[in-house]
Amino acid sequence: MSEIQRDEVLNYRPGPDSELPLEDGETVLAVFTPDSTRYWKDHVVLGAIGAGLVALVLVWMGKTGQIGIATIAIAIGMGLRGVYFKSEVFARRWQLTDRRLVGPQGRQVMLLEIETIRRLMGDVQVVTKGGAKHLIRHLADSESVVQEIESARTARKMRAST
Q1: Per the structure, how many domains does the chain have?
Q2: The pTM is what?
Q3: Within a domain: residue 10?
Q4: Which of 83, 107, 138, 151 is the most exposed place for a label (fewest CB within 10 A)?
Q5: What is the pLDDT of residue 14?
Q6: Structural domain harbouring 102
Q7: Does some domain include residue 83?
């Protein structure tokens, strides 16, 4: 009889307990945590996009009288979503070290494996040479995070080439 394997989703542990430990001699250069103002702005933007799309569909269906109620429902839904997920989102952080990015749930990205770093509204997407994508979400200043990661990657390349 085959053995039942535990689903990794059930091993979810928010916060620093879920991060990989630092290696000997590894130095933390920066810690990236979510920003409360950005978190709520992102929810407002997503709610506005959703309300706009629903309004277009309702106009297309000829039910313009329901646009107001749909907009209210979307606003309530996005507000409840924000409250429900806030503790989970704010338990996550990313650490930039002199060797890698260390993220939640055992994620890590070696600096020399980073292919692309780009901003997406208040988030930063890191794409590796192997195609793996990681998202650092709800940052107060995503542009400075991109610059910090790029600087650390450049410094790592310089150390590796000497």
Answers
A1: 2
A2: 0.81
A3: no
A4: 83
A5: 65
A6: 25-34+93-161
A7: yes
